[in-house]
Amino acid sequence: MLACVFNGCSNPALAESTKCAFHKFRDQCRVAGCTNQAYARRSCARHGGKRPCAHRGCQGNARTGNLCMRHVPQKRLCQAAPDCSRAARIGGRCVAHGGGRLCAVDGCSSFSRVRGLCQRHHVSTTADPTTATDDLDVLSHLQLDDALEAFLANDDRRRHHRAESFDIDVVAAVLAQDAIEVDALHVHVGEVGLLEGCGNQNACAMQAPSQGSGHCNL
Predict the structure, then answer these.
(1) Where are the domains of the chain?
(2) Smallest Cα–Cα separation from 187: which of 148, 135, 142, 132?
(3) What is the pLDDT of residue 189?
(4) What is the mean pLDDT for each group of 10 consecutive residues in the chain (218 residues)?
(5) Cβ-based neighbours of 17, under 8 Å, separated by 6 or more
(6) How many other CB atoms are found less than 10 A from the CB of residue 148?
(7) Please, what sign has the CA dihedral across residues 16, 20, 26, 27?
(8) How far apart are CA 101 and CA 119, in angstroms?
(9) Which pLDDT value is given to residue 128?
(10) What is the pTM of this model?
(11) How far apart are CA 75 and CA 62, in angstroms?
């Protein structure tokens, strides 16, 4: 019984065929006398089925991009430790040896992954739209904290809501719950209008007519 026609295959050929059961749907190189399997364009790798390496004088086949494995650029390794095999990122160091950027959130020691934030803080800002910083562009975080602290300190009606600290995420959630548009956000502290849009000293110009009070809803 004849063996399979392909180079290096010792399986018996099928009846009325030169190929074994494993290679019966494989094509043979179109070059006469070549028993290699065709890779592309009906040719084996040796006869043009694979692109040659772009390096001058190299007869190897391209593996990564246009270069063979011998001429493909090797990744830079971490230089912080002689036995470290990780890829270098910043300053010749890998992430484990200080070559990564830290998360942009104050006090966070994790490395940034997406848009300057670590995975934990990126997920927390995208999961709840009320905590996104773009929604509070009209006020900085410090301005909003100061305004809320002064408002609670000067308004007798809200004294029982005073807290030891003010969380910007809690403030944003309250504003979203009250359906207040961010671009029309208005904070009135005592008798002083903090934002453009408050036209009076003693009453908020943006209050609803049905309110009948001397202060805005905040």
Answers:
(1) 1-52, 101-131, 133-193
(2) 148
(3) 40
(4) 89 92 92 91 86 86 82 77 78 75 82 79 64 46 61 54 52 57 44 45 45 49
(5) 24
(6) 21
(7) negative
(8) 13
(9) 54
(10) 0.30
(11) 18
Instruction: Report the distance separating Cα 36 and Cα 153, nearest Å.
Output: 86
Q: Cβ–Cβ contacts within 10 Å for residue 5, how many? A: 14
- Measured in whole angstroms, how far is the alpha carbon of residue 141 from the centre of its chain? 25
Amino acid letter for position 92: G
Residue 186: count other Cβ atoms within 10 Å of its Cβ.
Answer: 20
pLDDT of residue 216: 52
Cα–Cα nearest to 191, from 140, 150, 149, 163: 150
> Measured between alpha carbons, how far is 126 from 118 in angstroms, rounded to an integer?
12
Alpha-carbon span 112 to 121, nearest angstrom: 9
Chain centre distance of CA 66: 29
HEC string for the chain: CCECCCCCCCCECCCCCCCCCCCCCCCECCCCCCCCECCECCECHHHHHCCECCCCCCCCECCECCECCCCCCCCCECCCCCCCCCECCECCECHHHCCCCECCCCCCCCECCECCECHHHHHHHHHCHHHCHHHHCCCCHHHHHHHHHHHHHHCHHHHHHCCCCCCHHHHHHHHHHCCCCHHHCCCEECCEECCCCCCCCCCCCCCCCCCCCCCCCC
* Contact (CB, 8 A) for 95 and 111: yes
As beta bridge partners, residue 12 has: 3
